[in-house]
Write a structure and sequence with these properties.
Elements lengths: L2 H26 L4 H21 L2 H19 L7 H25 L4 H6 L1 H19 L2 H16 L3 H18 L3 H5 L2 H67 L4 H16 L1 H9 L7 H14 L3 E6 L3 H5 L4 H22 L6 E8 L3 E9 L20 H14 L3 E8 L2 E9 L6
Parallel strand pairs: 1-2
Antiparallel strand pairs: 2-3, 3-5, 4-5
Helix pairs in contact: 1-2, 1-6, 2-3, 3-4, 3-8, 4-6, 4-10, 10-11, 10-12, 10-13, 10-16, 13-15, 15-16
Amino acid sequence: MSVEKIIISIIVSLFQGTAATIIICRQIQIKALKEKIKLLIPMCIYCSICFLFIPNQIRFILFIIITSLIIYFFLKIKDKKLILYSFNLEMIMSISEIIVTLFLVLFGINSVDIVNNNLYNLLANILISLLSICLIYIPFFIKIIYKINNMFDKNSKLINYLYIFIFVVYLIVSKNGLELILKSNYYVNILFIIGIVAILTVIIKNESKYDKLNEQNKQMLNYVTKYEKIITDQGKANHEFRNQLMVIRGYAQMKSPKLIEYLDSIVDDTKKTHSSYLISQLNNFPDGGIKGLLYYKLSMMDDENIKYEINVEYGVKTKLKTLDTIMYKNITKILGVLLDNAIDASKESKNKKITISSIKESSKVIFSISNTYKGKIDMSKLGSGHSTKGNGHGYGLRLVNDIVNENECLNVENKLDNDYFITNLIIQIKKKKQ
């Protein structure tokens, strides 16, 4: 082994090790210099050994394994996603290698010389390292990386598919160990790019549906505020109407007992009407979206011929008034998704019925939604984005999970009780500081 190659390996390892350290730290959001140095030293050592001794056909799989072990032992990160961090690193380096190789070839440098000529090889590795660092600092690119990581957070099963993908790529490279593959990583990188495009396609598709759902929820919140005004005004009108009847009763008392009897029947009728009861229940919520949302969803239940009951405990309004606007809107979003799922499940069942209740405890408000359903529900799959309602509803559950995960005061629980599926939204009410 020549001295020249050893010197080149040291220079290459410094650039590659630095690039790898920066990319990993950006993914895991490590800012401490001490932690970065702990990662940099073993990465540089491995890159040097890899450059001198490890054949190209096994570099990519070994790189992922060794990088994951370095993160595990030196950064003490014990997470299944270690492989994902390493895979993302390999992905960025592969993209950079393809771009740099095409760039050098366009400038008249033969691709074989890039591998065999020490000077060109050094230049290519330096450019690959610098480009990789640049890519990880592009806002759009790092946003994509974060979305990939978040996607694996929300669906732990995806990591198993990643293992399979890496293994398949390794088998393809091992089986087709031709001279050209042994001299370069081009085919390996192309396989990586195909995998990357597939993953990004899934992400973009899912995110577009998720964003669309968010936008629909925003529009719905704006829309239901109109219902709230109607409900509030109707409640006031009902109250004033009853007062007017009582006044008429007082004036007419001495003149006509039949008129009194007639007016009493009208007062009783207004108390017994379903609409008046519904308005009185919904007015137990403060303005902000919930009572408008419920009025809207109950109208949908009427359209679907779903029987429903609603009961709001006195005092819920006072409790909910202590919440800030953002929290109240988040609760409205969650209830919107849960009610949609309840309606979709109930309308498919034989006995279409939904019961909605809201009760208060010492420091909690609990919304309970019970609905009939058809078939069987696997409770073990609930809470992970799985939906029994078909395509599209998984995004609603994802929205619910995202909101709950970001708010320690919110929790959603599911259970089965006879023929009813019950979802409880538990809201922890924090006491205001004096």
